[in-house]
Amino acid sequence: MRYLDKAEVIKSHFVLLSGDIISNMKLKPVLDQHREQCKRDENTIMTSVFKKAAPNSRTRTLDDSLVVVSDKNTKQLLAYHNCLDQSSVEIPSRLLDDATGGVEVRYDLMDCHIDVCSPRVLMLFTENFDWAHRRPENVVTEVRPASKHCKNSSSDEEGDEDEDDVKRSAGDLISGVLESEISNDRIYTHVVSGEYAARVQDFRTYDSISKDVLCRWAHPMAPDNNILGKSTYHFFRNNIYKEDGVRLARSAFIERDSIVGAGSEIGERSRLSRCVVGRNVRVGVNCALTNCYLWDGCVVEDNVRMTHSVLGTGVTVKSNAQLEVGAILGCGVVIGAGKRVFAYQRVAIQGASDVELVGPDGSGSLFASAETLQRDGQSVPLALVNSVLPAKQFARLAERADDDDLSDFFVKEDDGESDAERVAQKREAFYRDVQETVAGKDAVALSREMINNVLVEMTNLKLSYTTELKLDRDDATRQYADATVQAFFSLLAFPSTLPADYKLNREELKAAVVKLGKLFKKWTPLLSKFAEQSDDQASIVEGLEQACAARSHTHVLFPHGLKFLIENEVAEKKGVLLWEETRLNADTKAPFLSDKGVQAILGQLKAASDDEDDEED
After folding, report:
1. What does the alpha-carbon distance between residue 171 and residue 42 come to, in Å, rounded to a whole number?
2. C-alpha span between 281 and 317 (Å, rounded)
């Protein structure tokens, strides 16, 4: 800024923003507001852009607890509080006196770090050599009292008390302007909503913003628009993007919200879910990657498991290795065969390699496993601030950001018998509500209007249930599918008094299969609404599995139910094979996989897949 002022290359108002911002907002409204404000108030030096965002929004950093106080009429910025570790905010009474139309206190604003500045901003940085930033960091900043408020002695004492209690920081533009006793410079605010603007400040926001871009919240800033550099991305269903030259094995799966760059290769039986894969990346056989970021040139060998991890350029992870949540590997790191990188560990190429960490065939050492960030006398794990976090754990993490014990975070769940009972009761009530909804509509013909009504009703049940228990999408979908299929099975009307080891005779089995077929055929239009994606279809099959396993006399119905799902196109080939893969990799036994009827169905699906590949060849 000082160099620009010295060079005298900027003569008019300009836009100042960080290089790590992703936004699709229109600048014209804020520019117009700034110009009009400059006409009304010659002391206007800057208009700062804020975006409406909930305090727990995933695009806000964990240390973002911003409170913005502004004049309700003029939108002049009066106070800028970052109230981390504070349960309340004190607003001096003088702010009420200074405001022309009252004050507006906002806790739902995120600073976009986008400013429209007058040329005077450059001059201010030159005059104030100690200013190093535009904004304060984790401080409370507010307008200092004008001289007319300092005449009363009691006001003086209150002002002194406020200044003793409030931690201030010089060295930035906003603090300097708001705290100045002699300057008349003013900063104004502009709030956007319905547009996207967020800043990548750490690995957690890097993850959140990347997902937003893949889900097209920042459109037209989308990969398939190919507006940055020479890229050839194409958009596919479920927010999947692939560039030209991607090679996928016939049994490889790429799940929703994923992107794969040119020259990358995914091996047999490997599954990528919500992953960002750069160019010329090789993923071996039977790998499972969830919410991971693989930069260009990474190599992941066979049987690797990793979740919520970041791999820098040229990283190699050898066979049978495992990366736990939040692992970050620097460029060029090699993780040896069979090694395990624990949660939130950072590995980088620096000095001698740690053989115990990366193995004898690896390269790298621990970078910052126990580093903590001191903030106002409290120790906050740096890993909690700068790591990729699962969405379902963010709410609890924000409440526990002052907890040093990371292992505590991964082990502890809702402890206490009362909490467990409450969850069980809610689940039972949810299953019962779904069952009653299905049973209530079974006696009537399912017209298109009726299907839409049932869909809305069941979706509301799911939303209420998942919100109350704070379930993530995968858990919610799985339990929803389980409840729905069990509701269908309840319509078979087996006597509840049957012995636990009862087996259906031939006539009973025939009648049950016929009725089950009719039920699935009737409810297919509704089930199809819930099974548009392969992972949802796998959840439907898993729900069928759970329903059949609940009672011994329904075990034999599973292959028939699976056949009906396929015939009615509720579950497609990929969804069924994904269910098989999930059950093979599960810790619990999967007795239905050994059933002859199930094996025959899976064999037919795999044979059909081979025939399709042969035709393509």
Report:
1. 24
2. 12
Q: Cα(107)–Cα(140) distance, rounded to whole angstroms?
A: 14
Rounded to 5 degrees, what are φ and ψ at 541?
-65, -40
pLDDT, tens digit (0-9, with 9 covering 90-100), for 562-609: 888 888 888 888 888 888 887 777 655 667 887 888 888 888 888 876
Give the chain's domains with CATH numbers.
2-199 (3.90.550), 203-366 (2.160.10.10), 417-616 (1.25.40.180)
Paired residues of 81 in beta bridges: 67, 140
DSSP string, 581-603: HHHHHSSS--GGGG-HHHHHHHH
Q: Which two tokens stand for residue 321?
A: 């290795």
Amino acid at 317: V
Q: What is the dihedral of CA 475, 477, 482, 487, to 10 degrees?
A: 140
pLDDT at 139 over 90: no
The full DSSP string for 351-377 is SS--HHHH-TT-B-EESSSS-EEEETT
Strand ranges, E, within 382-464? none
172 HSE (CA, 13 A, CB side): 16
Average pLDDT (353-375) is 73
Residue 66, classed as helix, strand or coil, is strand
| pTM of the model as a whole | 0.58
The half-sphere exposure of 328 on its side-chain side, counting CA atoms within 13 A, is 22
- 155 sits in which H/E element: helix 153-165
Whether 568 and 560 have beta carbons less than 8 Å apart is answered as no
Edge-first strand order for the sheet with 77-82 is: 103-106, 66-71, 77-82, 140-142
HSE (side-chain half, CA atoms, 13 Å) at 581 = 22
How far apart CA 77 and CA 142 sit, in angstroms, is 9
Residue whose token pair is 């960002």: 276
Terminal C-alpha separation, the chain: 60
Higher pLDDT, 613 or 222: 222
Please list, residue by residue across 154-190, b when 16 or more beta carbons sit within 10 angstroms of its beta carbon and e when fewer do: eeeebbeeeeeeeeebeebbbbbbbbeeeeebbbbbb
Residue 55 CA to residue 17 CA, distance in Å, equals 22
**Residue 525 vs residues 321, 450, 521, 522: alpha-carbon distances, Å:** 43, 11, 8, 7
What is the residue type of 333? V
Q: Packing angle between helix 573-585 and helix 596-616, nearest 10 degrees?
A: 120
The Cα 540–Cα 543 span in angstroms is 5
Q: The sheet that has 265-266: what strands, in order across it?
A: 247-248, 265-266, 282-283, 299-300, 316-317, 334-335
Would you state the pLDDT for residue 328? 93
Beta 346-348 vs 365-366: how paired, if at all?
Answer: antiparallel
**What is the crossing angle of helices 534-549 and 558-567, to 10°?**
150
